[in-house]
Amino acid sequence: PIGSYKLTGSIAPNDFLWGNTTFWDESEFNNVEGAAEKGAGIIKLGLNSGFFGCLMTHEQRIATLSVNEFEETLRRMDVLLSDREKIFASYDEIAEYLYNHTRSKLEEVRIADGEIRCGLSGGSSVPLKLSVFEEQKGEIRRQLHTLSPFSGKIEVVL
């Protein structure tokens, strides 16, 4: 299971260490592998949803881990997420991006002569990302394009 978020009355809904440390006798040992798998699963849930992935835990659970156990948990998570594209950002950056994303709209897309023309409206004060998916030899590949800040109506040629 990805996390305890499905449990009624759970006090640690998405805590990746919940059930994986000796805190409150949740586990007989500090389960580094279990914590890494749960943490990677939580991050994948966010990324697969086209959103952001975020780890959450409580300091009481961190306190039961040695520095080596905590670092090994993070290392294992990194390996489990090695197939994912990651863009590191703060909560403030994510909030500003989402605010601007909601102020913009992809109005139309035209494909002709090897070009993709995208008509956008609204505006953004920060660069936005546009995903273009293309099938190549039976595999779907994504290209991420950065759009410059804009206001009003624009056309972007990719």
3D architecture notes:
- Helices cover 30% and strands 28% of the residues.
- With 158 residues, it is an alpha+beta fold.
- The strands form two sheets. Strands 1-2-5 form a three-stranded antiparallel β-sheet, with helices on one face. A two-stranded antiparallel ribbon has the order 3-4.
- α1 crosses α3 (67-80).
- The radius of gyration is 20 Å and the shape is elongated.
Strand order in space, largest sheet: 1-2-5
Name the average pLDDT.
91
- Per DSSP E runs of 2 or more residues, the count of β-strands stands at 5
What does the overall shape look like?
A: elongated
Low-confidence stretches: none
Q: Can you summarize the main beta sheet?
A: 3 strands, antiparallel
**DSSP summary: helix tally:** 4
Gap from first CA to last CA: 40 Å
Strand content: 25-35%
Structurally, how many domains make up the residues? 2
Structural class: alpha+beta
Order of helices and strands: HHHHEEEEE
Radius of gyration: 20 Å
Helix content: 25-40%
What features would you highlight for this structure?
5 strands, 28% strand, 3-stranded antiparallel beta sheet, alpha+beta, 4 helices
Q: In terms of topology, how is this protein built?
A:
Layout: H1 32-48, H2 59-62, H3 67-80, H4 91-102, E1 104-112, E2 115-124, E3 128-136, E4 139-147, E5 150-157
Antiparallel strand pairs: 1-2, 2-5, 3-4
Helix pairs in contact: 1-3
What's this entry about, in short?
The protein has 158 residues and is α+β, with helices and mostly antiparallel strands.
